[in-house]
Known about the structure:
By secondary structure, the protein is mainly alpha-helical.
Amino acid sequence: xxxxxxxxxxxxxxxxxxxxxxxxxxxxxxxxxxxxxxxxxxxxxxxxxxxxxxxxxxxxxxxxxxxxxxxxxxxxxxxxxxxxxxxxxxxxxxxxxxxxxxxxxxxxxxxxxxxxxxxxxxxxxxxxxxxxxxxxxxxxxxxxxxxxxxxxxxxxxxxxxxxxxxxxxxxxxxxxxxxxxxxxxxxxxxxxxxxxxxxxxxxxxxxxxxxxxxxxxxxxxxxxxxxxxxxxxxxxxxxxxxxxxxxxxxxxxxxxxxxxxxxxxxxxxxxxxxxxxxxxxxxxxxxxxxxxxxxxxxxxxxxxxxxxxxxxxxxxxxxxxxxxxxxxxxxxxxxxxxxxxxxxxxxxxxxxxxxxxxxxxxxxxxxxxxxxxxxxxxxxxxxxxxxxxxxxxxxxxxxxxxxxxxxxxxxxxxxxxxxxxxxxxxxxxxxxxxxxxxxxxxxxxxxxxxxxxxxxxxxxxxxxxxxxxxxxx
Length: 473
């Protein structure tokens, strides 16, 4: 191969990166928009929090269950085909979510969110693979770091945009806004993205099915336990989860082309870094899911004020994460990741101390502290995962990290809801605005949920610091 070949091979790489970033930003925007408008959706359909929480959780559940499968499918069929198919489906599903405004129950919205998650998973599974294939090795880290900005930017834009749209136009438009943006993105990426043809291989259907059943049944068990359990039915769900988890493990050990390479977890750095990511994202979504209800039902904020206040968290992540990643290249990942997770634990403890008379600034600076901690934690922790992975398996490792991130989000919502349900009656949870003793009861439930979140990310600080140190590859 002559010296000019790499230049021809990687020409147009930054146009590809920009196209991927502008489309990928829709996923985090969509997630953070929905969290802000969730109290409004619950009030519109006249349902309690336990029903409303399935709007974000179904979306995350479906994505979490299929990321590894879609990544493998991209290896076989080609990344561009999977990416564009997902984008087209995401546009259609977003339109259906908006149109659920005219349907009688929230169940239609939950079903359409499942379809949206089914398609969004395709978009989320392959961007890292597209970027890695489009950039030379010496620019790969830089490109992935730039791409990460789009995720933080989406999370930062989502709350304020969601609050503004809900306040000005109504909650259906938080979904409908994806349609014109998605169509423009589809036309552009279809022209810009390289073909990146797949390689022949087998699809691990058994792994995909058993992992999905495991996640769904375990999530149902956590959600419906509510601290007191549901007797026989809940026991059945737990039994199904255990059997599906065992089946998934056995399938992945025996198939020739597993969806999940279990051998990676023999590396303690890889295992502990992924555990840390799971715990941190669980704590993050305890906060992200519950705080809008605190702001709207107890402090009586309007949706746009809820969105502006919630923006403090992702904005802080976006500011600090690039610097944290660069610093970890010089001093290592362990101390930074542990310190960041500990900051998140402190922030959640401070959230648990909020009162019924708190101002927007009282909440915003606590959210900013959590964002700073998250920014300090995530980049070094991701570096620890990828740096402890053999180069031929970087794609699998990226899929595992993405899956655990989304599973953490799902479990965080379920756990935060379960703590709240155990302490607050359904009658209080269903009311759109609370005062007096009912508000105090709701606040008590929130405090315990925030403390559970603090414990989770405190454990992440421990699992980060006890990793075995090996040189990064």
